[in-house]
């Protein structure tokens, strides 16, 4: 699966399906091949409306549970990584080292290292994510993804970003860290 920057899951129906491309095509409203901040905000607002089941303008703890258990159960910390439909289960002898070993929750399937992308939009820590907080998070996440600072993001940049995130996780999973050794905290987004 692919988890969008705001937490919406996109699941493959076949091994050949590119779920990140599916999200990008849906979010790129004018179909020009570039994602803008306005398009990302509109995509976030659409997903917010799906999660705000009672329509009160906030994603409350009950709705957050619905998100974690029904909408995107893949993000649960102890959930096993999902394979694409038709993908064979690796045998124990041939199982490659998991590049997502340091990534948890939604970060295993996403562009940003956010284990729970919906709850992480709660900027005032009141356990509710209101529409303003979600919109603000969408703008911030757009800025994180716009690594070239162009104000628009082509799909190729997102592919490169995802490849780099997985490569960094694989590199860190191979390296032994001595206790007390300084390292970047990669649990949330990317180091500044």
Are there runs of 5+ residues with pLDDT below 50, and where?
Answer: 93-97
Strand elements, count = 6
Major sheet characteristics: 2 strands, antiparallel
Overall outline: globular
Portion in helices:
25-40%
Radius of gyration: 17 Å
Q: State the separation between the terminal residues, measured CA to CA.
A: 27 Å
Element-by-element helix/strand order = EEHEHEHEHEH
What percent strand? 5-15%
Task: Name the strands of the widest sheet in spatial order.
Answer: 1-2
Number of helical stretches of at least 4 residues: 5
Which quaternary structure do these chains form? single chain
SS content category: mainly alpha
Mean pLDDT: 84
Task: Write out key terms for the chains shown.
192 residues, two-stranded antiparallel sheet, globular, 7% strand, mainly alpha
Describe what this molecule looks like in 3D.
27% of the residues are buried. The chain has helices at 19-27, 37-51, 61-71, 131-145, 155-174; strands at residues 2-3, 9-10, 34-36, 58-59, 129-130, 152-154. It is globular. The chain starts with a strand and ends in an 18-residue tail after the last helix. Helices cover 36% and strands 7% of the residues. It is mostly helical. The model is unreliable at 93-97 (pLDDT under 50). Helix 2 packs across helix 4 (131-145). The chain has 5 helices and 6 strands. Strands 1-2 form a two-stranded antiparallel sheet. The protein has a two-stranded antiparallel ribbon with strand order 3-6. Strands 4-5 form a two-stranded antiparallel sheet.
